Amino acid sequence: MTKETSSAADLSSWIQQHLDQLPQAERRLAIVILEAPGQLASYSASEVTRMAGVSNATMTRLVQRLGYENYDQMRRLSRQNMDWGSPLYLLDRKGADDEAAEAQGPFEPHVAASVQNIQGTFAGMSAADIDVIGGAIAEARQVRVFGQRNNYFFAAYLRWQFIQFRNNVYLLPVSGETMGEYLVGLQPDDLFIVFGLRRRTPGLAALITAVSRAGVRTLLITDSANRSDLGATWVLKCDTTSTTPLDNHTAVMALCHVLASQVIDKAGVAGRQRLIRIEELHTELKEL
């Protein structure tokens, strides 16, 4: 097998690169694969060739021409991309099940997925752990909340919830700045919260390692498909199953509310006084 085709991330791009040079039957098969490459993870070679209207021998020739060892290797790479959370690989071809789902209307499948994700997420969490984490957030000298890509928006939302009731909560990274400046000066009584929902950036484990080396406790909020704690002190996993190629993050938002409510309770009188002063300033500045 060639080096270029060894990575899961390269599967669809590698097929695309060869598309114009393929014989007609193989090209038809390749186009069917590219329409929904995630289907390789669950369909047999015969099922895919039937979709394309070509023979099994065409699949064998295509696999060989692309440089893969066999169809099973392509299936493994497709499955890796699905686990990674690539929306392209979570797309599927429309079938009878899809038509039945559409007949339910635009809301029911999403509501059902949201409820299932919330229930599954909290069923897998310990109330005692949430209590400890809530106390740690409320009592920390500083709280730094980190997220990249879609994780950035969850980090920003959680910070906004926290700052109603406590000081010194910072969102990272700030536009145009690197992380090195923020890791200097960390102290053991600080707390670092990392959103690491798929698709995670490669440097996340190194970041958590650097923070932990400073003696700082870390909370990783991630998805249930993530099998690694990345070295974090605490890990909270959210179910993100969806009826679409895009993950359903309802449970993530619900978890943010749970953590915020913990901070409200743990902050006590000082937190309420802060909120009172914020409301007074809103009025004074005519901000709202």
Automatic annotation (TrEMBL):
PROSITE patterns: HTH_RPIR (PS51071). The keyword Hydrolase does not apply. Keywords: Glycolysis. Residues 9-85 form the HTH rpiR-type domain. The keyword Ion transport does not apply. GO terms for biological process: glycolytic process. Gene3D superfamilies: Glucose-6-phosphate isomerase like protein, domain 1 (3.40.50.10490), Winged helix-like DNA-binding domain superfamily/Winged helix DNA-binding domain (1.10.10.10). GO terms for molecular function: carbohydrate derivative binding; DNA binding; DNA-binding transcription factor activity. This is SIS domain-containing protein. It comes from Duganella vulcania.
